[in-house]
Write a structure and sequence with these properties.
It is built from seven helices and no strands. By secondary structure, the protein is mainly α.
């Protein structure tokens, strides 16, 4: 039951990896089971969130009649100066910061703004989340 509690706290948009890890420690769950449950709980909504945001963006573009080159995922007009590799590193670094509102939920919105393709966004945010959990463990030890 403790693992489920940590897992569910990690899933919440208001909950963070740090919160889930602290809850795991408070209820007596070990460090690595807490970390595993927190990471899995945090990552579970990510593919669905990215899919829904991309779907809504595509619908908004088709309704506004602005389909075309911007849909390729090669950077938006406002971000054409950012190289594709730096864009992915920015997303990874943002997701790896163990601060409130710097997790998968805001990272997904950032991937939409930076026009990061679905699979690259999924990989960058997932790796950032894993690193964020490790950083939180190191900070609070």
């Amino acid at each position: 039951m403790e693992v489920l509690t940590v897992f569910l706290i990690g899933m919440l948009p208001t909950g963070t990896m740090r919160e889930a890890l602290a809850t795991g420690a408070d209820i007596g769950l070990g460090l690595w089971p807490s970390y595993g449950a927190a990471v899995l709980g945090t990552l579970l909504p990510l593919p669905f969130l990215l899919f829904v945001l991309n779907f809504l963006e595509d619908k908004a573009r088709s309704l506004s009649g602005r389909e075309g080159d911007e849909k390729t995922g090669e950077g938006g007009k406002g971000f054409s100066g950012i190289s594709l590799r730096i864009r992915d590193v920015i997303l990874l670094a943002f997701s790896a910061i163990p601060l409130p509102f710097a997790g998968i939920w805001t990272g997904s919105l950032l991937s939409l703004v930076l026009r990061v393709p679905f699979l690259k966004a999924l990989a960058a945010i997932s790796l950032g989340t894993v690193l964020s959990g490790l950083a939180a463990i190191l900070i609070y030890m």
